Amino acid sequence: MHRFTGRTIVLTGVGREGQVGEVVARAFAEEGASLTLVDRSHEEVERRADTLRAAGHDVHAESCDLTDAAQVAALADSVASRHDGIVHALVNGAGGFAMSGPVAESDIAVWHRQIDINLTTAYLATRAFLPLLRPQRGAIVYFASAAALPGGKVAGMSAYVAAKTGVAALTRAVADEELESGVRANAVAPTAVRTAANLGSMAASTRYVEREEVARVVVFLCSDDASAVTGQILRLS
User: Fold this and answer.
1) What positions carry a catalytic annotation?
2) What is the pTM of this model?
């Protein structure tokens, strides 16, 4: 039996081909979910949605600048009108990586960009969709990073790690604040994931987490099988 038949899932950061988002979206679609895929690029998110529609899945595509509070609020309104105000899970996959270099030599623009795309996007989406998640006792999944956990590599990428550390803090805050509403908040914190971007920029000897492995954990965290799991940061390696 499909675990998400009749359930509405919103996934952000599902645009570029070869990244984690497209595999997470496919995993939910194959479990019967009705999906809303969100990305800044209208053309790219439509392509990802078209691929799933061609396989017979119920998928909508929305373009949105997730760093813009007004656009995110409008996105939530659009999803609410299409699904009778019901959302069962929000997966905050939007983000990105850039080296910032040593702090003493770093560019403030890189710092702001990393905070915006990794942390602000998750914060604004959470704030906008919580009212839709509460009646369903829904789930939120965030993408942190193993680099943000104790012992993780930090040198040269302080902006990215600071942003992902913020994501971990946001996860714990939402989990604590929403205990009474029943909304669960958890995060995955992978090491390097085998994506098209990473394959093109990392050493050949890199040990990767497969995108399918990430997707299985995300789907689990949004399912009834994880109904007692909240406030957890799960390292994947």
Assistant:
1) 160
2) 0.95
